[in-house]
Amino acid sequence: MTEAVETDAGPARITWYPAKRPRLVLGVSHGAGGGIEARDLRALAAALPAHGVSVALVEQPWRVAGKKLAPAPKTLDAGWRGVWPALAAPGLPVISGGRSAGARVACRTATELGAHAVLALSFPLHPPGKPEKSRADELLGAGVPTLVVQGGNDPFGRPAEFPEAPDGTYGMVEVPYGDHGFAVAKRAEISQCQALDLITEGVVEWVGSLG
Q1: Between 20 and 30 A from 10 (CA), which of 3, 62, 94, 171?
Q2: Residues 124-139: pLDDT tens digits?
Q3: What is the pTM of this model?
Q4: Rounded distance, CA 158 to CA 195, Å?
Q5: Residue among 179, 93, 110, 113 nearest 147 (CA)
Q6: Contacts (Cβ under 8 Å, ≥6 apart) of 55
């Protein structure tokens, strides 16, 4: 089911994958360089409804408008705020999620929007080759239970580069050999299907732990 939503940043679009007996909603958006066709988003949309989680894949207004470049962070945040009432409409706790730039949006707005938790896929800890420009403050400031799913070869931040999580601020699922899009090379010791299984299994276990 696809739903159009008006926001202050323009029309957004939500594609729903409902659970039969939902207890949670995962609203998750794409990054700055792609859309909801990303392999990890599709895998989660296919797997989570069987575990009581309705998945809402959110296309930010700039993608709906057919633009190739993402706008400034404040505009992304405005688009996310605009879709939130639709995500909350089922009356269930909402996990705020996103991949890459979308993960930053989810972290920045989680407390303000009353998110139940945050799912950060491929969190861009820093620009490639510039570890000194850390965005760890956004991740650590989410203020709600957070899970980071990160590729072992992600140039935007490998798992070992992430700061320690004080008081369990966030958990980490590492996808060995995965790049920023969780792609793994053919010579890797795990297959692409196994990499996606690690993502879905890790997220399923985590959502099962959420009250």
Answers
A1: 94
A2: 999 999 999 999 999 9
A3: 0.97
A4: 16
A5: 110
A6: 16, 17, 25, 26, 28, 44, 45, 48, 49
The token pair at 160 is 């070992």
Overall residue count recorded for the chain in this entry: 211
Look-up: residue for tokens 């996606």?
Answer: 196
Strand partners, 2: 15
CA-to-CA distance for 149 and 152, rounded, in angstroms? 10
pLDDT at 187 over 90: yes
Measuring CA to CA, how many Å separate 56 from each of 48, 84, 157? 11, 11, 26
Ranges assigned E (strand) in 10-108: 10-17, 24-29, 53-59, 94-99
pLDDT single digits (tens) 87-131: 999 999 999 999 999 999 999 999 999 999 999 999 999 999 999
Supply 166's token pair.
């004080």
What are the tens digits of pLDDT across the range 2-22? Answer: 999 999 999 999 999 999 999
Give residue 101's Cα distance to chain centre. 9
Are 13 and 64 in contact by the 8 Å Cβ rule? The answer is: yes
Report the amino acid identity of residue 211: G
